[in-house]
Structure formats: structure tokens, C-alpha cells
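re: that chain from earlier
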Amino acid sequence: MMNAESESSTSPRRRFLARLALPAAAGLAGFVPWRAFAAVPERALALESRELGEKVQTVYFTDGRYMRPALTEIRRLFRDKHDETQTDIDPDLLDALWVIQRKLAPRCPLEVVCGYRSPETNAMLRRTTRGVASNSFHMYGQAVDLRINGCPVSILHRFALNLEAGGVGYYPRSNFVHIDTGPVRHWNQGRGWA
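^ sequence. v structure.
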């Protein structure tokens, strides 16, 4: 994971911004070069957890660096809902969420269904829920299960696939999309979780 105080321009996760293809289903078409996003001096996120009853609206990147106070707020919102533990959230994941919010939900928060999972919570979920990965990216602050109020999960799924930021899991019955900053891959509900 990159240092929270500085942005690495050589991060392999940045390729998704360079290849950003916008889904036709969202009424957007074509590629947007990374330079268009790099020129933006600030990146902000509006996030919520309905289950926790909490919201965060913060500028997490400005003046060429990630802002520690904002990352701390986001870390708290992403906390494990079972045991309240927290971990740092991958800035590359936040950048992917920033692109998603900018294009699909500029006026409403992204809903974090599940962010960080402690190893204990992940083990419990593996015992009680089919398809939970033993080495889930959720345990490393590199994954989020996400939905957007008013945006069909199918559109969010297609958009996330086009980002090529990492793994994308499609859970239409549960009404969320899993996004992580691991290797680029995809799967559908019922075929395993990451």
C-alpha cells in the first residue's frame, strides 16, 4: 500500500484511470485520459453507512497528497461492524471510489455495505456464509462492497468492470458490487466472494 502522505505516480493501480471507459448504459461514452483527473487539485468523497447511521463528506486528496485527517474519518466509517476494529484503507481504492462518485453519483453519497473485515470476522463469515474468501481483500483495507441510491447495481457493475482497478464481484440479489484493488478479475453472486 502506498504512503498516505504522498501519491505514487507509478502505482500499477493508476492504469484504471488511464483507461477509464464509461458505460453506455449510464449515458456516457468514450475514454477519459488520466491527465484529466490528475489535473484536479482536490479529490473528495461523500460516503455513508446506513447500517452504522454515519456519513463522511471529506476532501481526502489535495495539494498533491492524501490528507491524514480525512483518511482517519474514512477509516472509521469502513470499520468492521462486528468488532469495531479498523485498518488503513488503500488510497487506490479511494481513488476508484472517487471516479465512481464523480461519474455515477455526483450528488449523493456512496453507500459502504462492507468495508474492513477483521480476520476474526472473516473467519466467522466463512463458517456461516458460502463463498467468503479465506484471504479476503477486505481484511487488508483493499475492498469495499458498495451500492449507490438511485443507481441500478447493473450500471455500477459495468462501470466498475471498465475501471479495471482490480476485482469486481456482482451481487444483484444482495444489491451491491464488490470492488477491490487486487488483481483484475470478476465474478457473479454465487460463485465466491473476495
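The CA atoms of residues 100 and 159 lie 8 Å apart.
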